[in-house]
Amino acid sequence: MFFDRGAREDGSWPAGVPALKIAIIGAGPSGLATAIALMKRLHRPFEAWLVDAEDAPGAFGNGAAGLVPTTEPARDLSVVPERPDDFAEWLKTNWLAGGTVATLCRPQDLHAPRALFRDYVMARFGEVMALRKDVRIRTFRGHVRHVDAGGATPRLIFRDGECADFDHVFVATGFGTAQREAASWQAAHRAAEHLSGLENPPPLTLVGNGPRLAAILLHLRADGFAGDIHIAAASGRLPQPHARPQPGLAFGEPPASRSLQEAFRYVRRECRSAEAREGGQWQAVVDAASARLAIVWRNLPQVERNRYRRHLLRLHRHFSIRLAPDVHRRLAAEIETGRTRFVAPRAPKSADETVIDCREVPSARALAGLLSCDAAALSIDDGGHLAHHGASIPAISVVGAIASSLRPGPFTFAETVRQAYRAVLSATPHGLARTSER
Ligand SMILES: Cc1cc2nc3c(=O)[nH]c(=O)nc-3n(C[C@H](O)[C@H](O)[C@H](O)COP(=O)(O)OP(=O)(O)OC[C@H]3O[C@@H](n4cnc5c(N)ncnc54)[C@H](O)[C@@H]3O)c2cc1C
Description:
With 438 residues, this protein is α/β, with parallel strands linked by helices.
């Protein structure tokens, strides 16, 4: 157990009002955003268990990982949906005003170290908890093996055989336990240390093609690791950079058919023609297409959704999640040196080949495994509401990266926060939000 602490251990729950019991599985950014949304929008007493197999809340900002800039600028990292500049304002007040951190750009445009983003999220978490005398939050270390949705209310079954019943469960398991970020950092450090001690070291292979890979690779170099690095990524190219927002974008005629493959071909064509134009940026085309897809998605047949999940989701994710411009520049310069190069993904040829998994792939199968059902029968709407063969699964919501294993997004933190608030507000089967007034 990380800690077991109530907002008010003296228990000032109003007499006669039963407290709801809620579980949030995963204490990453999405789990924390969900806990904040609950405290801000659910106006009745509740006890929430923030359960994580490995990481304490906010651990994504610890150690070397905390020094790396966020992929998104501060203007896109608010935990308060009605105040999009909340993180930028917090940075300005706490770090920039006194000159502790000097910046050449506006705080909104800053890609702050993740440790600062973590501090901001934890600060807002603490502030809202202090206002809720009728809420008890427990953070709990436990590996959830199964979420049983078959009973009157959902039940969590833990790996050690313990179980607990809840009125509502929010699943925020992100990249799962098999692809935990902390494990990638630890393995990379160990491998670099080992290889640096060898006379003729074989290359170090990093598997993946996203922000985690970029952060670990640049950190190893900054730390003095001079050996060859191979990046094993099917796409064979760098993670994508951000571009400046581009207003007034004009598009060609979209395809008349409702085939997703046609739609993606169309987006590719549009990206190429945007890049050919003076100052044109493919990023703006992808963002506009993603917003449109989120609307089309609602009426898309399950068979098309499954096709998207199998064939297009990875590509869509790859082009939607972008690096801070400075990180992208440093990565491009690193490739230029020739010490780091792309290789095709393949199984290690020998036992001494050192391979570090830096992938960030949310797995629909992991989610389906948790619920003991078939991934192809699952769907999630933009409020994180889960359905099986189209029939709603009551009292279970899915938030953040894991939700994007089954639908287009959320790929950005702003989308995750909106989804968390929608999930809280639409979690009505047991009346979670019906009593909410604000
Ligand atoms: C350098 C870098 C910069 C980044 N910048 C941004 C950014 O600007 N914006 C952004 O949105 N994201 C960013 N990310 C990604 C971000 O850190 C998150 O990892 C990602 O958004 C997913 O968050 P999450 O909470 O959904 O999942 P995760 O962070 O993967 O957290 C899920 C948690 O669930 C736990 N868990 C999983 N399965 C179980 C189980 N069965 N039982 C109990 N616990 C379980 C895991 O232990 C984990 O702690 C960045 C990542 C990197 C590496």
